[in-house]
Fold these 2 entries.
Entry 1:
Amino acid sequence: MTADLIAKIETLKATRPNNIAVQCFDPVYFGTLSNAHKSRLLKCLNSGIENPDSEMGCYACQPSDYDDFKPFFSKVLARYHKVPEGARHTNDWSLKGVDGLPEDGVLDFARLGLPALSMRVRTGRNLKDFPLPGSMTKDDRIRLEEKMTTAFKTLIAMPDYGGRYYSLTPGHPCFIDDATYQGLVDAHIMFKNMDSDRFLTAAGIAADWPYGRGCYVSADKGFIIWVGEEDHLRIMCMQHGTVLNDVFDRLKSALDVVENIEGLEFAYSADYGVVTSCPTNLGTGMRASVHIALPKLTADGTDTRAKAIAKPLGLSVRGVGGEHTPIGADGTVDISPAARFCITEAEIVTALYKGIALLNAKENQS
Ligand code: ADP
Ligand code: DAR
């Protein structure tokens, strides 16, 4: 079994140059591991082995994986995030002194001549006392949701964060039906059916769907916490407007509340910052995005030209339904900085503002 997997990885190494996990797999290092660690590391790569077209090709399955398999993950991180091997991450939400920040510190899209946009900033968090989603049992998933259901009672009692929890777990007191679930997905509040994601399925992250999954939503629908998606928690703020600081500052304030709820302790690494399932999210776990119409750059109905222009600007282009979805009929796309690691939270949100300014100029010049 192990020999077959090693042979498959070596074949992929020769045929899949973009699959970072297989490219960084070293059979000599692998040979030095105990049988238990060999099994753990191969589990991390399963998604990339079963999906040769993967870009990253691996997920951490235990909070300690990045440290326990540092010779492997340090190569993966260096290659994907284009940082020196062994680079250490620093978290910082303070905008003060960030390069490119407007003099008054206000990231206002109206100053770029843009209308109100749909703005969203999310980060990932994993509870340190559970396996990461790729290695959770069904019981783990249900226990984590129960723990969060109790934690949400604190938020429900707070004017700024009061709301309700929606559960996909049959028998949960907050269980919702399919129509309610789909309505939340269509409103960009709830995450998509994980069973349909081949990468998450191969990684074990989608296992036991839909048990242990749900989302907490504030009364104004501007503060959301996913439970049981790619990370234990995805914590986010969303708002239709022009001042990016509004969602960024609200998320930071909300995080300060959540991180101090009794019984919640999150996984952090001294070297890598916020621990996440996917190495692409490690460090900040943050994706800051806006939905913006680029009708000229998407005139052919695809995101091809928009991606070609956005990529050199350090920007990712996603569809209006998020990752692996199509662009909007009116040319609306989801734009976000690609960087998550060895960049601070403040630098990410400033990079989004600067990136949108450049991308919007390209749209106007087209
Ligand atoms: P993530 O951002 O957590 O990596 P996705 O890219 O799949 O996950 O997006 C998840 C959901 O969030 C999707 O419904 C997507 O449309 C929505 N979304 C992302 N950014 C925005 C935004 N700026 N405005 C509104 N919805 C957004
Ligand atoms: N498709 C997987 C993951 C890429 C990053 N997206 C995440 N983590 N949602 C790949 O390895 O290409």
Note: The beta strands are 117-125, 163-167, 214-218, 223-227, 233-241, 268-269, 273-274, 287-293, 315-318, 332-337.
Entry 2:
Amino acid sequence: MQAFRLVGWRQPPELHEVPIPDPGPGQILVKVGGAGACHSDLHVMEAPAPLPGFTELPLTLGHENAGWVESVGPGVTGFGPGDPVIVYGCWGCGVCSNCRRGRENYCQNLAGQGPGLGGGHDGGMAEYLLVPAARYLIPLGALDPRQAAPLTDAGLTSYHAVKRSLHLLGPGSTAVVIGAGGLGQLTIQILRALSAATTVIAVDTDAGKLDTAGHMGADLALLSGDETTTRIRDVTGQQGAELVLDMVGIEPTLRMAAQVARTLGHLTIVGLGGAALPVDFSSPPHECSVASPYWGYLPELMEVITLAQQDKIKVLVEHFPLARAGEAYQLLHDGKIRGRAVITPHD
Ligand code: NAD
Ligand code: ZN
Ligand code: ZN
């Protein structure tokens, strides 16, 4: 089969012919319907040297996958050929206390293995994907895998980041989302679906993304610039927002995040831009908690799928055949993907 593979650090990934995996005991082979192109893959491709925890190259990219069960290995029950499924991408040991709670994104026993699918294991930018255990598959019901694939990362990461702060988002509260791309657009919809926040503010450098953010439920969509901080502070009566989610994580966005967060609020860094947030006694504001969530919990993915089945969240997808995966990442790099690029290997 064809697979889009990272073959060297700081080298563009390439399409290669690889064998179709054979599912062993407990494993499932998934025919890939859609594999989302996440900005994190760009960070991986641009990394100067092997990232900690990544296995040796070559490695098939793609950690945002959905498709149909192709075949199951000995002992697998509950799933059969043709079932539409989405794949939870963080594969832990399954038995540590975090894994037993469904928090495989924080497995305590990874012992130097990769951080998950597309990191330590071959990902889904290929015709087929080998999944090590049935617990990683969530039934999609009537959802189309080509449409749903981004829900397992862009959706789940956003959901987890919002859910942990829901207690702050009562009536009258404000949430700010910096970066309205693949993740940010889902974050805005999830804030609307889950919280009672009165005001949702989107910030981006791209006018088109802000337009989309408005359609997805943002009350206010602001171009990122010198005035943005003042505007957000004015809107919140100089108090700042209860929750600020930075989906970019570079120096100017982190600085803005600290300036628009409120005392006792949450500042949540989701973007892997790599900058550091300066912390001193008064910035971020007093008792404002800072967190850097990584992906989300397995049971939360079931909740995300339910929201999508209820039509409460939608992904703006653009489809690309596997042969154009490199082009999809180039467009993402250039800021030209409106929502999420999804590779569809069987179209
Ligand atoms: P994306 O490219 O689709 O979206 C990024 C958005 O940020 C774009 O709309 C872009 O215009 C905007 N932006 C860029 N610079 C900005 C600035 N200075 N101010 C405001 N907006 C700006 O990327 P994505 O796939 O949504 O990923 C977003 C980030 O989240 C990436 O860094 C990615 O690696 C990270 N990520 C983290 C996790 C996690 O578990 N924490 C999971 C997935 C992705
Ligand atoms: Zn990702
Ligand atoms: Zn574990």
Note: The longest strand covers residues 28-37.
